[in-house]
Amino acid sequence: MNLKERTGMHRVITSLLLTGLILAFGAQAAPPRDMPILTIHPGAGGTPHVLSVADLEAYPRRSVTGLIPDVGDHEAEWTGVSLASLLQGLGEPWPARITASAMDSYRETIPGSDLEHYDPIIAYQRNGEYLSISQRGPLVIMYPYGEHPELLTRVFFSRTVWQLDELRLE
Ligand SMILES: Nc1nc2c(c(=O)[nH]1)N[C@H]1C(S)=C(S)[C@@H](COP(=O)(O)O)O[C@H]1N2
Ligand SMILES: [Mo]
Question: Which superkingdom is the protein from (predicted)?
Answer without folding.
Answer: Bacteria
